[in-house]
Design brief:
Layout (H helix, E strand, L loop, with lengths): L2 H30 L9 E14 L6 H5 L3 E18 L13 E24 L1
Length: 125
């Protein structure tokens, strides 16, 4: 290697270090002066979703609505609310044949599935 390349090899890293020092001082001044501390606030928003199922009118979602949840979507379907056993055929003997009893729905109701959503905000400095 010649002398010119050797000088460049040492001068370039040193020049980079010297040029980077004012940036470091500027960052430290900004931190110590509390410049704009009152105006800088981070607003964090978190979107939460929840799926709630209510069958046979046994409960309501009013408690969720009071907590700030909103209904995004709802679907309904028929479900059996209670079951009963009965004979499979008129002539079967329940004492002799255990397969004679079958379980069938007694009361048919409605199941509603709600998709709830809320946005939680957290303000921090």
């Amino acid at each position: 290697m010649n002398r010119k390349n050797l000088k460049l090899l040492f001068v370039v890293p040193i020049a980079t270090l010297i040029a980077g020092c004012p940036v470091k001082d500027y960052i430290e001044d900004f931190k110590t002066n509390n410049l704009g501390k009152e105006s800088i606030k981070n607003k964090i928003e978190v979107k939460e979703t929840l799926e709630v199922s209510i069958s046979c009118n046994k409960d309501t979602i009013q408690g969720y609505l009071d907590e700030g949840w909103t209904i995004k979507d709802s679907t309904s379907s028929e479900v059996a609310c209670s079951w009963k056993t009965q004979k499979a055929t008129k002539n079967c003997n329940e004492k002799l044949d255990k397969a004679c009893k079958i379980t069938v729905p007694d009361i048919i109701g409605e199941e509603i599935r709600y998709t709830l959503e809320r946005i939680k905000t957290d303000d921090s400095e």
